[in-house]
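Hi R.,

Here's the chain you asked about this morning:
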Amino acid sequence: MKEEAFSLQLKYYHFSLFTFKFYKRTEDTLGKKSSLQRILSSRSGFYRG
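And here is the predicted structure, written out as tokens:
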């Protein structure tokens, strides 16, 4: 029973770590994209971000 709980905890830990990494990567990508859109929109009114 104890081992089961431990493995569950370990799984949860890995999952949260993966989620955090994935979220961070997505955030970075979105951040880059939005700044790119801002540059494009400031150059010409074509791109709205």
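One quick note: The longest helix spans residues 2-43.

Cheers,
M.
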